[in-house]
Amino acid sequence: xxxxxxPKEGVQENRIRPCRRPPGExxxxxxxxxxxxxxALAPEGFYARRGRRVFDLVLLVVFAAPALVLGALVALGNxxxxxxxxxxxxxxxxVGFRGRVFPMLKFRTMAEVRDPYGAWESGRDGLRVxxxxxxxxxxxxxxxxxxxxVLRGEMAFVGPRPEMIEIEEWAREHxxxxxxxxxxxxxxxxxxxxxxxxxxxxxxxxxxxFRVTDWYRRNQSLWLDVRIVGxxxxxxxxxxxxxxxxxxGKVPLLADE
Length: 257
Fold this sequence. Notes:
The chain is mostly helical and 257 residues long. It is built from 10 helices and 5 strands; from the N terminus they run H-H-E-E-H-H-H-H-E-E-H-E-H-H-H.
């Protein structure tokens, strides 16, 4: 099996030629690569093509009961903190498998703004996080509603994190081949999260994010996914959140509600 440390060399720059966007597609969604090119980027092997969905369904069964209990408590806490039942959850369009846009679910952790992309780009995201929201982020309990996304087949437990439409378009412009990461379903957690953490509006950080995610795409296996889930549980118990491993003098920006 491949080493768990993503190598610096050998990252393929997947320069995908976009096809014409299908009729009725959301107007701001990134253009999809051709079906043949998506297939060429898809991971090889039985697990990647068939087994990972079984893995997701098994985890859904295993974690269903504790997720429901914790989810109910978090929903009650958010209701008390935010004062309105309709603000407990956060729904946002994200770019998922093969460029398809889907509504991703989370527990709300931030105060509302009219322009979330502008807040992300300017680095004001951290100022919007509520005190209870910071606890949810540090323990990753804000991700619990995404069990529904996994059940509906829009996400997997392990995979690249789905980006906002505007951020995906920004990343495509600045990182060659970035769209290629969408050749695998997006995940609640992923190799980039347990090795790199959250990234901000920094081109170098997103290039590293693509490098790490592309390594996962090419080395996907049951054992690797089990290791990632295990590391994620450890991060949750430590309550440290996804901390961006940054160089000195750089301020981390939170790119995820």
